[in-house]
Amino acid sequence: MIHGWVASGFEEVKAEFRKNFAERDELGAACAIYHNGKKVVDLWGGCRDHKTRSPWEEDTLVLVFSTTKGIAAMTIAVAHSRGLLDYDEKVARYWPEFAQQGKENITVRQLLSHQAGLSAVDEPLNLEVLGDLDGLAEILARQKPAWKPGTKHGYHCWDLGWYQSELIRRVDPQHRSLGRFFQDEIAKPLGLEFYIGLPPHIPDSRIARIRPARVVQVLLNLDEVPYLKLCINPLKSGSITYRTVMNPRILTNHKNFNRRAVLSVEIPSANGIGQVRSIAKAYGVFAVGGRALHLEDETFRAITAPAIPPLSGVRDEVLLTDQCYALGFCRPFNNAQFGLSERAFGFAGAGGSFAFADPDAQVGYAYAPNRMGVYAFDDPREKALRSAFYRCLSRLYA
Fold this sequence. Notes:
Layout: E1 2-6, H1 11-23, E2 28-35, E3 38-49, E4 54-55, E5 62-63, H2 68-81, H3 91-94, H4 108-112, H5 127-130, H6 133-142, H7 160-171, H8 178-190, E6 194-196, H9 215-219, H10 228-231, H11 240-245, H12 260-264, E7 272-274, H13 276-287, H14 297-304, E8 325-326, E9 329-330, E10 345-348, E11 354-358, E12 363-369, H15 380-396
Antiparallel strand pairs: 1-3, 2-3, 2-12, 3-4, 5-7, 6-7, 8-9, 10-11, 11-12
């Protein structure tokens, strides 16, 4: 049930993809890699649906959770390149109502880098609220920061994408949402199939069904996702971690991401769904400077420049680990290394998906499974493929 191909010299990647199914409990997955603007790996296999045992097809779409954040960051980068916004300008310049509760001086850069103190939304959110972009914007504008912006950072788990989307709506002459802007300005020009807000015409038969990690597996691996210790402890319900992760409550159960109602609204931080090769192609375009999207050199330099950490250091107030963020992307740091240098940028998603651009090697990479793992980064299935690819690359250039 393994399909696809690899270019000459990258056979080891296919071998590791097979091992994922034979030795690493893979259910269904896909991996695609672009190098120097050309696709060199395109693999898929296993089961799309664990209940029906339906096979993963060439055009299967899969949910990638927070890997969507990288797609949203690319969308903001395109808006920056078009002169619609400035990373170092205050958010309130574009969105005047945002200047409430001490948020008047927050910059776009601070917001995108998880430094705004807006990781939690205190007003209850549900799918009806999320579908009303005007009403949601009012709620976000009323939110008070949990810390002085710029002094700390903490993972804006769900809401970063909604802040990004409202920014796009404010600066775009057509007032498109982030999902619509992405479709028009990135997906269509590049021929991608990836959605933030699943269209109704996509049949269920094309969608990989997510299978959450087993409870026992999660409990035995809490050290891999330390913030979960707070989220499963009701005595910690006042913590910033709990407040961040537990609203909207419907998103805390990964099984709900199999529901069309959850996939259909725009959650630019968490519910992107599409073909894995499309994610790899988008990163592949960015890895070579974004010329196919007419990305300005200034924007490319900005997203590959060293990250600017908050004043208090790199400890994430929400995830309780050291993290590195810049302009909506994760960057290589400490135990989260990827690419050839700190210029690489991407994002990982819950359950094991990961995608990134490596400008030094001119690589765009993406992997996504439908059986969720427990690793916040370096899921063994994904890491095996990534490591094999770079071994192949080093041999080609030896």
